[in-house]
What we know:
The protein has 2 domains: about 5-205, Fructose-1,6-Bisphosphatase, subunit A, domain 1 (Fructose-1,6-Bisphosphatase, Chain A, domain 1), CATH 3.30.540.10; about 215-325, D-Maltodextrin-Binding Protein, domain 2 (3-Layer(aba) Sandwich), CATH 3.40.190.80. Helix 2 packs antiparallel against helix 3 and helix 7 (about 255-265) packs parallel to helix 8. The radius of gyration is 19 Å and the shape is globular. By secondary structure, it is α+β, with helices and mostly antiparallel strands. The chain contains 9 helices and 14 strands. GO terms for molecular function: inositol monophosphate 1-phosphatase activity; metal ion binding. Its cofactor is Mg(2+).
Amino acid sequence: xAVNLDECYELVLKLTMESGKRERGKNHxxxxxxxxxxxxxxxxxxxxxxxxxxxxxxxKAERKEYLRADDDWDKYILIHIKLIxxxxxGPKLVVEKSCEVDLxxxxxxxxxxxxxxxxxxxxxxxKFIGEESxxxxxxxxxxxxxxxxxxxxxxxxxxxxxxxxxxVSVALWVDKEPQLAIIYNPVLEQLFTxxxxxxxxxxxxxIHASKxxxxxxxxxxxxxxxxxDQEKMAVVMHNINTLVPLVHGLRSSGSAALNMALTxxxxxxxxxxxGIHAWDVAAGALLVEEAGGVILDTTGGKFDVLSxxxxxxxxxxxxxxxxxxxKQYSPDRD
Length: 334
């Protein structure tokens, strides 16, 4: 099936980026506290930017003639703002899924429905894999057909607690390869984008992964995950204890997509995780690659988006060192 990537990119960028154009925090006094005003990039590593970066936000997606008369964009935009930016410090309906740390809120479900319905309207022949749809019984079936892989709120635990490391992660895969990626944190106003062969960007500025090759000088991203399986937790803790004396430090953001974005921008030199799902990593995989990094299976083999494990790094050298050190874990496939 022929896919117009320009059209796909314009629509998904519109669906995510437009939500940041309204006044921030208008209905949330807590958001207006001193020190909570978003600044980006928050890691402050400007050395990973290019001074002549392409402005990927200045696309046809922002031109009025793009909108069709029957597109109810205003309604979608207002709902999106309320769901993400205004609810993070407000009351939430929280439901446990597989265990007490695997959570879903009404916000996750509503955003996914909005994204899928909006994209489906424009691309009726495309397929979809969404976290909450799969939780409700839909199959996680990745074929050669154009497939949107969506995590409506990556970092749900953070969202529940009002911790601002949350994002929407959307990727378009064609022929089982990622072509478009958007990771958007509307609270901190960080928009990460990538298109195959065109580089990776944060808020329109080109980003690059770290070029560090010495593990002892690396900052690594690690996660505990949303499972309390004893075998998995034993592996997680073993690897953390093993790595601590060998690296500069370990960091945990609570979001696989944002962990991968941090590696893409050089904020961390590598990160890995066991037990994640396709929707957690489908966008981040392309972002890391387009930033010049590598994305692998934790064993060092080819990355498989359905394997529920990954390792990404700024350099192959660092990735190889981590593969030799960490203990492996094999979750059930998506």
